[in-house]
Design a protein that fits this description.
The protein is built from 1 helix and 11 strands. It is mostly beta strands and 196 residues long.
């Protein structure tokens, strides 16, 4: 009995002493709404995105990449705003079958009367990001402001729709009912998005 208790305690201690917890953001002000993506073709390749404070930019989407399952992480990248008076929120990411990484987020006026959901693409695993492509803007459905909590998935089935990007959004939280969910897709690898 004593031997098994000692073994259990040593086992628990060894797990705790080898924890992989890391402070990825190193911010003293605000970091929130993290999202983690794992490359389905390489389980060692992790990318994290989050909302973070950046001087003179308010809130931006920040990303960081690991190619060794989180043991070490690259530099922090900030996604530029589409308008210098905007702030960003609500990141989500997905890989396609070709190893391209897509990041979906909102960039908006804090009032918020203007802005949109955008997608940026990385062809190098999240080290660098392309130009933003608008998915749906704040005025797409009258006064409903349909750009809150975007969520993205990419078809990796290998079938006819492989590579299609699907995004859902919802109205801003202060918009009174009735409300609806919005569905938007891209059938050209994120170069453009169809109307909702």
């Amino acid at each position: 009995m004593m031997r098994s208790t000692l073994f259990i305690l040593l086992f628990i201690f060894s797990i705790g002493s080898n924890a992989q917890n890391k402070n990825l953001s190193n911010s003293f002000v605000f970091d929130g709404e993290p999202f983690l993506a794992i490359n389905p073709n390489n389980s060692q390749h992790l990318v994290v995105a989050w909302m973070g404070w950046k001087l003179n930019n308010i809130l931006v989407i920040k990303t960081r990449v690991s190619f060794n399952a989180g043991q070490t992480w690259g530099i922090i990248n900030s996604i530029p705003h589409t308008n210098s008076t905007f702030q960003s929120a609500d990141p989500s990411m997905a890989f396609d079958n070709n190893g391209n990484l897509f990041l979906c987020f909102i960039d908006y006026n804090p009032s918020p009367t203007d802005g949109a959901v955008y997608v940026v693409k990385s062809i190098d695993g999240g080290l660098n990001w392309g130009s933003p492509v608008e998915v749906i803007n704040a005025n797409a459905d009258g006064s409903k402001v349909p750009m809150d909590r975007p969520w993205m998935v990419i078809d990796r089935s290998g079938g006819a729709n492989d590579g299609n990007i699907y995004i859902t959004t919802k109205p801003a939280p202060w918009i009174p009912a009735p409300n609806r969910a919005y569905f938007i897709r891209s059938i050209d690898n994120g170069n453009s998005f169809e109307p909702w």
